[in-house]
Amino acid sequence: MSTEMKNQVVAVTGANAGIGRATARALAAMGAKVLACGRDRGRLDEALASIRAEVTGAEVTPLVADLSSVNEVRGLAEQIRAQTDRLDVLVNNAGIGVDRRQETVDGFELTFAVNHLAPFVLTTELLDLLEASAPARVITVSSANHVGAKTLDLEDLQSRERFAWQDVYARSKLCNVLFTRELARRLAGTGVTANCLHPGVIATEFGAGGDLRGFNAWMFRVLKWFLPGPERGARTSVYLASSPEVAETTGQYFADCKPKEPSRLATDDELAAALWRESERLVDSVPRSPSS
Ligand SMILES: NC(=O)c1ccc[n+]([C@@H]2O[C@H](COP(=O)([O-])OP(=O)(O)OC[C@H]3O[C@@H](n4cnc5c(N)ncnc54)[C@H](OP(=O)(O)O)[C@@H]3O)[C@@H](O)[C@H]2O)c1
C-alpha cells in the first residue's frame, strides 16, 4: 500500500461494482479511508471483502443507501457524518441507464434521479463538511455521451413528453457537467474544488440486471469483450481525487486525466444556474423523513 492518500477520507458512490469499485480499491491502496456506498448490503460486503483481500490494510467502510430516493441520499449524508468529522473527497460515481421510463418513490424519472439529483443532494447536504475539511474535492462521473444532449428542457426534466433512453441518459450526463460548473462557481474561494469526467468506454455492469433489455443488453454484453476494464475507467477519478497537479483546478471536465472542452451546451452558465435552481426546487418538494 502507498501512503499518498494517508489520513484522507474519501466517499465513493456505486462502490460495489464497475468503475466505482475500482476507484474505491485504488484510493484504499493509496492509504485513504474509503466510505464505500452501495444500495445492496450483500453486494457491497462482497466487493469490500475482495478489496480487503487485494489490498492489505485497506480501510473500507460500507454505507447502504438507494440513491433513487431523495430521503435515502439525505440519510447517506448523515451516515457519512456519523463516520467522520472530515471529508476530503466526494466521488459521485453511481449511475444508470434504463431503457424504459420508471418513476422513483419521489415521482422523479429514475435516470435523472440517480444520475443527477442524487449527486446534487449528496453534495449539497455535505457542503459544510467539505468546506470545513478544505482543501477538499468533489468529483462527478459524467460521460462523453453528454454531447448527445442537444437541448435541456428544464420544463421536462422528468422526460414525460418523450422517453428515448439514450437521450435521457445523455441529458443526465449533461446535468453532471452543468452541476459541476455551477458548484465550482458557488465554491470559489472556499478551497473546495469541483470537477467532472468521462471515464472512457469501459467494460462494467452498466445496463445489466434488466436495466437494458433485448438488443441493447446484447450489444453491451458483446461490447464488453472488447473494452478495457474498470481499473482503466477509474484512472481519471483517482487522478482528480489525489493528484497535486489538480489541487486547485475547478469547474473542469476531464477525460484521460486531461482537461477537455465539454459540449457547447455544457458551458452555458445561465443554464447551469437555472438547473441548480430547478434541482433545488425539486428536492425541496420532497419532505424530509424523520430519519434524514
Ligand atoms: N462504463 C462506461 O463505459 C461508462 C462510460 C461513461 C460514463 N460512465 C459512468 O460511470 C459511472 C459508473 O458506471 P459503471 O460503468 O461502473 O456501471 P456499473 O458497473 O453498473 O456501476 C454502477 C454503480 O452504480 C450503482 N447504482 C445504480 N443505481 C443505484 C441506486 N439507485 N442507488 C445506489 N447505487 C446505485 C450500482 O449499484 P448496483 O450494483 O447495486 O446496481 C453500481 O455500484 C456511471 O455514472 C456511468 O454513467 C460509464
Q: Would you mind describing this structure in some detail?
A:
With 292 residues, the protein is of the alpha/beta class. It has one domain: Rossmann fold (3-Layer(aba) Sandwich), CATH 3.40.50.720. Helix content is 42%, strand content 14%. An 8-stranded mixed β-sheet has the order 3-2-1-4-5-6-7-8, sandwiched between helices. The longest helix has 23 residues, at 110-132. It is globular, with a radius of gyration of 18 Å. The chain binds NADP nicotinamide-adenine-dinucleotide phosphate (NAP). The site of NADP nicotinamide-adenine-dinucleotide phosphate has 28 residues, from α1. NADP nicotinamide-adenine-dinucleotide phosphate is lined by residues 14, 16-20, 38-40, 43, 66-68, 93-96, 114, 141, 143, 198-199, 201-202, 204-206, 233.
